Amino acid sequence: MAGSAKNSPVPPEQLALYERLIATLPDVELRSNFGTAYTALAGNMFTMISKHGVVGIRLPKAEREELLARYDAELFRGDPAWPPAKEYVAVPPALLANTAELRPYLEASHRHVQTLKPKSPRKRTP
After folding, report:
1. End-to-end distance of the chain based on CA atoms, in angstroms?
2. How many domains does the chain have?
3. Does some domain include residue 60?
4. Contact 95, 71 (CB under 8 A)
5. Is 123 within the bounds of a domain?
6. β-strands 55-58, 85-90: how paired?
7. What is the pLDDT of residue 109?
8. What is the pLDDT of residue 123?
C-alpha cells in the first residue's frame, strides 16, 4: 500500500500499526480496496482494516474464542451499522499496538486460510 496511505480514509496511526503487523509475515502483501487494506491468499481474505481503523483478523474457532475471551474483544464489523463477520475478531487497539503479542494470531490466521478452498477470480462484466 505504499503511497496510498495519504489517500486512505483509515486513521494513519492504525494503518501504520496494521502495516507493521503484516510486515512480520514476509510473503504476505497488503492489498487495497476502496482506500482500506486487506490480506488474502488464494482469494480468501484473512485480515482487513476498516475505514474506521478497526483491524479484523480471521481465525479458526479455537483461536477466535481465545482472542475474544482473553482480550475482551468483539467480532469484527467493517462498519458499526453492519452485522458482525462471524470468523473475524476486531483487534482491540492496545493489542494492535503490541505487534509481538498479536503476531501469533496473525500466524494462526495465515495457517488457517491456507486450509481453505481457493476462490476463483470473479469475472468482470464488460
Report:
1. 27
2. 1
3. yes
4. yes
5. no
6. antiparallel
7. 98
8. 63
Sign for the CA dihedral angle at 83, 67, 55, 33 comes to negative
The whole-model pTM stands at 0.87
Low-confidence ranges of the chain (pLDDT < 50): 1-5
Q: What is the CATH number of the domain that holds 84?
A: 3.30.1460.30
**CA atoms within 13 A of residue 68's CA, in its CB half-sphere:** 15
Domain holding 110, by residue range, is 5-114
Select from 78, 98, 76 the least CA-distant residue to 88: 76
Give the residue carrying C-alpha cell 487494506: 37
In a domain, 23, yes or no: yes
Determine the pLDDT at residue 3.
Answer: 42
Distance CA 13, CA 49 (A): 12
DSSP state of 101: H
The Cα–Cα gap between 39 and 22 comes to: 8
73 lies in a domain?
Answer: yes
- Rounded distance, CA 32 to CA 16, Å? 14
Rg from Cα positions in the chain = 14
* Identity at 18, one-letter amino acid code: Y
Q: What is the Cα–Cα distance from 9 to 32, expressed in whole angstroms?
A: 12
